[in-house]
């Protein structure tokens, strides 16, 4: 059995729940024989991947839905073997080069060469090119992006590239100009509510409107998260009640807890414990920028107005450094230490003013 | 095939200063040097040095008082070699260990003649000297393996030197040396007892040859007829460490290899032997060459040599030659604490521009960074620059170590802020690959940050920890993967961790539970 996220994912452009005008445009795009490189951009959980799959189906027919997963092995110039998982059909190949870390350049170049050097077997009625879907393109290193730019030009006859990114700001201009950008904005709250209601209807459940509203709020307009939460809530308790508990994301709860620990005690020993917790999160695979953001949000929400500005100032400084550096833990720790310092000073001043 | 050549008559014209018999003067032969004296030419592939001169017909001993030519003989260093075990600069306990091993060899000579011993220690700790002196005292003839320079001799059959024959030859030569030299004695040598010495390891063992070396030792312990001694100098890196690579523990256990470790020579012993060197210099036949240097220079030499007596002797030789200006010395910042007897603190100095470079280990350096010492003049005793210099080849590693260890040494969160601020900046600088100097600057910054930010360091024993390696966990369990189906492969690790994991885990658990209940 599949997850609801996959089970009720629209398969055709005409069946999409929102951004219908855009879907129409995409259909028109497919009608032409030629087809540019595409870049889908928008926040996480807004339906980029869904639209890409619908588009591919529109072009190649239902054959693209026969998926197989495959582990490909690449050898870096330094003779290191890296394995990357791919999902492919006869017409397309989907890959996540960011999992290869700093070796993503090798993956991008080798993969595209492998795919692009073979022509489609049956051209009749089909397109004469294959499509490579690169997800999380903004996680690609600059090096890999430059390599991608060259290969995009070179193999344009046999392959097209669709990149899915969260933000175009981390994509080099050369690639941005070579792709047709398609913005997929997050669904609005009523849209999510109606999708959740529809899903429940198809599952034969009734969803109280209050619960739906709370789910939407908690999901931060992330449709995938909303659907997963809905399913997890269903697993916990059916039939739904209006005030039933919605399961939390583990790492968010963990971060909240970390933030309250920072506020409770400001000593080197505590900092050491916080460091362990941050390591724990990094080991789980949570990206450091999300950790940073979550930490800042939680801390700012919990501290006095007078030190909020200062906290944010430090946050910007260390966030910037984290992007420039390689050891993210240094900068996370630096921010925590700074916050502890200003919070401690704030507390001691508070005690003083209370006394007099 | 090894033509053994021994001295049976002494040339009257060379090595005059060596030939005095041990009884008549302190200056006697054979210290650590590989004596390829003018007489004993290197013969063919192998040469063993007969370092023992006692049995040589000494033609010159009676003319000992005559003035030698004022030139320095080629192997002047032998003039300073110890002649008896009392004169050795090595700690008496170590000498005792080696001696008892030799005595043990003698005791079991009939039954197990092929005893093996391994001597290790830093350079210039007196390993070879100890062995040679003891061998002479106990009447052993030392036969040493020296790597042959010329290999063509081995391809005797007139074949074209083919690739394989050429490669194998060193090994074969070494093997035949071990087996034959231990069995058959030279016609020209009167001693019965022989001792094999290997200080020069054939190159073939240093690469991948551990297995063949082990085989060789197996052969030797069953066929060899004399004690065999390996001498290995310590080296810092593991890859070059012969004692570590060629002599693993199980091999040592298998052949009962006696492993004796030498330490660097202690300062007090070193000072004593410097004095005795000076007395050798004042001998009449040396007076034309040497003048005894000032006391400060002597002390500086001892400090600079860091337990390496060979190095100390070379420096002494250089600084005491007649007509050489006094060596410049520089003050060290180290001040010796006043003793209970009320001696004044004495500033140590070392030779400028000559002497060994100080090298420190990572742990040592961590200690200097974490517990910085401030000296009387309110300056850091170990300068951050000095530490930076020692680790400029691996800045990233050192910075990671600082990060892993600095926290427990701090008392105040305000100080930590400064330190971690600098560490973060150092990280950015290390990540900048376009300029080589930046990484060194970054390292310096990180070291300074950790040293200076700490206003009141916590002292006490805090163990050093290694930096943590982040390995992203292997993701979803099988049930979770099944839930996601084939699409799972397209979800990146970070996306899975942030969006899917917590929910999918809940759903998968529930499914599993319900599956179990229905089955039950």
What's the arrangement of secondary structure elements?
The complex is a heterodimer of chains A (356) and B (520).
Chain A: H1 4-7, H2 20-31, E1 37-41, H3 48-60, E2 68-75, E3 81-88, E4 92-95, H4 104-116, E5 130-135, H5 142-154, E6 159-165, H6 173-178, E7 179-183, H7 189-203, H8 209-219, H9 223-236, H10 250-264, H11 268-284, H12 288-302, H13 305-324, H14 328-355
Helix pairs in contact in A: 2-3, 4-5, 7-8, 8-9, 10-11, 10-12, 11-14, 12-13, 13-14
Chain B: H1 92-107, E1 116-121, H2 127-137, E2 140-145, H3 163-183, E3 193-198, H4 210-223, E4 228-233, H5 242-246, H6 249-254, E5 258-261, H7 267-281, H8 284-287, H9 295-305, H10 309-320, E6 329-335, E7 347-351, H11 362-370, H12 384-390, H13 395-405, H14 413-430, H15 436-453, H16 478-484, H17 493-519
Parallel strand pairs in B: 1-4, 1-5, 2-3, 3-4
Antiparallel strand pairs in B: 6-7
Helix pairs in contact in B: 1-2, 7-9, 9-10, 11-13, 12-15, 13-14, 13-15, 14-15
Question: How would you describe what is shown here?
Answer:
The complex is a heterodimer of chains A (356) and B (520). Chain A is α/β, with parallel strands linked by helices. Chain A folds into 3 domains: 4-183, P-loop containing nucleotide triphosphate hydrolases (Rossmann fold, 3-Layer(aba) Sandwich); 189-236; 250-355, Zinc Finger, Delta Prime, domain 3, CATH 1.20.272. Chain A is 55% helix and 12% strand. Chain A contains 14 helices and 7 strands. Chain A has helices at 4-7, 20-31, 48-60, 104-116, 142-154, 173-178, 189-203, 209-219, 223-236, 250-264, 268-284, 288-302, 305-324, 328-355, and strands spanning 37-41, 68-75, 81-88, 92-95, 130-135, 159-165, 179-183. Chain A has a 7-stranded mixed β-sheet with strand order 2-3-4-5-6-1-7, with helices on both faces. The longest helix of chain A has 28 residues, at 328-355. Chain B contains 17 helices and 7 strands. Chain B is 41% helix and 8% strand. Chain B is flat, with a radius of gyration of 31 Å. Chain B starts with 91 loop residues before the first helix and ends with a helix. The longest helix of chain B has 27 residues, at 493-519. Chain B folds into 4 domains: 83-261, P-loop containing nucleotide triphosphate hydrolases (Rossmann fold, 3-Layer(aba) Sandwich), CATH 3.40.50; 267-351, no CATH class; 362-453; 478-519, no CATH class. With 520 residues, chain B is an alpha/beta fold. The interface between A and B is large, with 66 and 53 residues. Chain A: InterPro entries: DNA_pol3_clamp-load_cplx_C, DNA_Rep/Repair_Clamp_Loader, P-loop_NTPase. Chain A: Keywords: DNA replication, Nucleus.
